[in-house]
């Protein structure tokens, strides 16, 4: 198949645009979309220190490569990478992330569950099973990422979150009837490093292709503890539906954004955790943050 824009061989077909693209035109289209998302949200400004939350998987590796290309020449924006080692034997290898960063000349920092919390994810699973391990892990990883980022003077956190992730999240919240999550407004909270998602409007398969074209040695395996039955179902439903209605994932992500923008009044304020001092939403009767609650639960308090 020939590229819709030139005579070269196409490497990808975009159902939603009807275009066949060669490698060069695919890269151009991909990076234009990511840049547009950044511009539209004013995600990167002069003086920013941007940290990629680098797991070493395809999405975060791709976002590191893209941002390195975008920001590498700029003197007014700093780029770095942060990797959290949850402690999963045979899966999480922080060395892989280190090699990826160093290969691009991007400063890299790591932190581990073991050092920060005195417990690894392997031990959490051994104690509590896999049912809640994703939730625990997510809470602890976010809290640790945020703490390290603040110590490093990071002003923006870049995630490899893609269109499929975004659409799945919106649909999952709809299916759970979770109005609070759907309408929680985007806002800046003191001490909480804001997140940016340059690939928010780019389908997962194109992020994967971009990673394959540009990054060597990223991690192909998913987390061995990930269960996420609802997400797996939702992914299946969405993929099937999108085959017939190619704009669906994009529409869902835009819907999610519109809902969050319009409800400025919702939600209570933010305070700080009484124990660890990290920012947390103020809820009645709870003086400690989710991460501290999870740690209490794990330590059997
Ligand atoms: Zn072309
Ligand atoms: Zn806390």
TrEMBL record:
SUPFAM superfamilies from the UniProt entry: Adenine nucleotide alpha hydrolases-like (SSF52402)
Gene Ontology CC annotations of this record: cytosolic tRNA wobble base thiouridylase complex
Any one GO molecular-function label of the UniProt entry: tRNA binding
Biological process terms in GO annotation: tRNA wobble position uridine thiolation
tRNA(Ile)-lysidine/2-thiocytidine synthase N-terminal domain boundaries: 50-211
Any matching Pfam family: TtuA_LIM_N
UniProt binding sites for ATP: 53-55, 59, 84, 160, 165
Organism superkingdom: Archaea
Binding site for Zn(2+) 2: 273, 276, 289, 292
Protein keywords: ATP-binding, Metal-binding, Nucleotide-binding, Transferase, Zinc
Domain 2-thiouridine synthetase TtuA-like N-terminal LIM, residue spans: 2-27
Protein name: TIGR00269 family protein
């Amino acid at each position: 198949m020939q590229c819709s824009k030139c005579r070269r061989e196409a490497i990808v077909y975009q159902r939603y645009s009807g275009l066949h693209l060669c490698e060069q035109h695919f890269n151009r289209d991909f990076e234009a979309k990511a840049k547009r998302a950044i511009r539209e949200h004013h995600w990167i400004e002069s003086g920013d220190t941007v940290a990629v939350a680098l797991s070493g998987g395809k999405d975060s590796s791709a976002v590191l490569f893209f941002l390195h290309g975008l920001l590498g020449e700029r003197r007014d924006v700093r780029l770095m990478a942060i990797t959290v080692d949850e402690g999963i034997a045979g899966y999480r290898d922080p060395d892989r992330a280190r090699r990826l960063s160093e290969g691009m000349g991007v400063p890299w920092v790591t932190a581990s569950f073991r050092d920060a919390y005195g417990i690894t994810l392997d031990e959490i699973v051994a104690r509590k099973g896999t049912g809640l391990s994703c939730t625990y892990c997510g809470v602890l990883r976010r809290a640790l990422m945020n703490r390290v980022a603040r110590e490093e003077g990071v002003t923006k956190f870049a995630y490899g979150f893609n269109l499929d992730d975004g659409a799945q999240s919106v649909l999952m919240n709809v299916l759970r009837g979770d109005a609070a999550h759907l309408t929680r407004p985007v806002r800046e909270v003191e001490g909480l490093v804001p997140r940016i998602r340059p690939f928010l409007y780019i389908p997962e398969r194109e992020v994967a292709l971009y990673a394959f074209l540009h990054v060597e040695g990223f991690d192909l395996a998913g987390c061995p503890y990930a269960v996420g039955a609802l997400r797996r179902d939702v992914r299946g439903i969405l993929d099937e539906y999108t085959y017939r209605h190619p704009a669906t994932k994009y529409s869902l992500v835009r819907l999610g954004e519109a809902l969050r923008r319009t409800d400025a009044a919702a939600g209570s304020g933010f305070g700080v955790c009484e124990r660890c001092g990290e920012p947390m939403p103020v809820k009645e009767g709870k003086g400690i943050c989710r991460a501290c609650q999870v740690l209490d639960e794990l330590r059997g308090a």
